[in-house]
Amino acid sequence: MAIILGLESSCDETAAALVTSDRVVLAHKLATQEAAHRPFGGVVPEIAARAHVDVLAALIEQTLEEAGLTLNDVDAIAATAGPGLIGGVMVGLVTGKALAHAAGKPLIAVNHLEGHALSPRLADPALEFPYLLLLVSGGHCQLLLVEGVGQYRRLATTIDDAAGEAFDKTAKLLKLGFPGGPAVEAAARSGNAKAVPLPRPLVGTAEPHFSFAGLKSAVLRARDAGIHKPEDIAASFQQAVVDCLVDRTKRAIHRAHGATALVVAGGVAANQAIRTALEALAASNGLPFFAPPLWLCTDNAAMIGWAGAERFALGLTDPLDVIARPRWPLDPDAETVRGAGVKA
Ligand code: KG4
Ligand code: ZN
């Protein structure tokens, strides 16, 4: 049994966790920077990086203390090395390097997206490779065939905004608060999802790619029309996202040869309407459905520790001069998608 210290600092959560190779989360600590970014309605990279510096060392100490362990008891240190806001990524990665060097332990440079992608396996030992993964977060919206640790085949991606980005922009437009996803979900609960006609971009097209920019513009027009309640716009928006995710995922199921399960992960996977709709889609295709518990969907260090444990078991450690990467696709061979404002 191996014990891995995981560190996460790629966006606006600073986190540390101790995770074992047999799926026990011994301790996990998280400090959110929400309050610091709230006045700006989005994450400010410079503020984020400084805030990670302020709290990371103390979080690591608290995590070790809660587990009753010292650095000597740890088998390896796993830190997010990208993709993300580079200032924040460097804080966590350099901290991981320093601890690894000081304690004479191996370093594992974890791809944050791999943290999300493997998190459902931390939550449930029944989930085996290969599986079809809908990875939906603030920066990414992809369908991936997860064939193994470090083995990803991207079947689709967004040609403009990520799903979480659409939630965040909608929340901002409707003045629902920050962070946007949970605020839109809460407002949608008291709204009518059929009240506002909104588009379902790319639904029905052959390639299972996503697009959310047009949906955001439609939300803006609906707001400016001045006739709809914000709750109705929020509910209609959420339903449009659900319909897009379900249609695109359904199409990808037919291309995900050999997939043994349908899995959703990433911050947007915390959305109950999305979970319920995907579960139904999986059932109607005879696939088991896996979604991590809510705290494992949004950014955390347990998923980084777990990805570290999976890599450590395969002997995949990294040298101390490993670099921090603002961009780091899971499938480097995936083709660039034709469309406006293409993102990696
Ligand atoms: O995975 P994550 O914590 O950070 C990234 O790696 O991006 O995802 C954050 C995203 C944000 O856009 C946030 O608004 C969204 O996930 N999110 C949600 C919900 N909770 C978080 N979106 C919809 N419904 C939610 N309940
Ligand atoms: Zn994330």
SSE-based structural type: alpha/beta
Which sequence of SSEs, written as H and E, runs from N to C? EEEHHEHEHEEEHHHHEHEHH
Count of the domains? 2
CATH architecture of the largest domain: 2-Layer Sandwich
Give a description of the structure.
The chain is an alpha/beta fold and 344 residues long. The protein has two domains: 3-117 and 296-329, Nucleotidyltransferase, domain 5, CATH 3.30.420; 128-295, ATPase, nucleotide binding domain (Nucleotidyltransferase, domain 5), CATH 3.30.420. It has eleven helices and ten strands. Helix 5 crosses helix 6. The longest helix is centred in the C-terminal third of the chain and has 24 residues, at 230-253. The two termini are 36 Å apart. The mean pLDDT is 96. It binds 5'-O-[(R)-(carboxyoxy)(hydroxy)phosphoryl]adenosine and zinc ion.
Q: What's the helix and strand layout?
A:
Blueprint: E1 3-8, E2 13-20, E3 25-32, H1 34-37, H2 45-67, E4 76-82, H3 86-103, E5 107-111, H4 112-123, E6 131-136, E7 141-148, E8 151-156, H5 163-173, H6 180-189, H7 213-225, H8 230-253, E9 262-265, H9 272-284, E10 289-290, H10 294-297, H11 302-313
Parallel strand pairs: 1-4, 4-5, 6-9, 9-10
Antiparallel strand pairs: 1-2, 2-3, 6-7, 7-8
Helix pairs in contact: 2-3, 4-11, 5-6, 5-7, 5-8, 6-8, 7-8, 8-9
The protein binds 5'-O-[(R)-(carboxyoxy)(hydroxy)phosphoryl]adenosine and zinc ion (ZN).
Summarize the structure.
This protein folds into 2 domains: 3-117 and 296-329, 2-Layer Sandwich (Nucleotidyltransferase, domain 5); 128-295, ATPase, nucleotide binding domain (Nucleotidyltransferase, domain 5, 2-Layer Sandwich). It has helices spanning 34-37, 45-67, 86-103, 112-123, 163-173, 180-189, 213-225, 230-253, 272-284, 294-297, 302-313, and strands spanning 3-8, 13-20, 25-32, 76-82, 107-111, 131-136, 141-148, 151-156, 262-265, 289-290. It contains 11 helices and 10 strands.
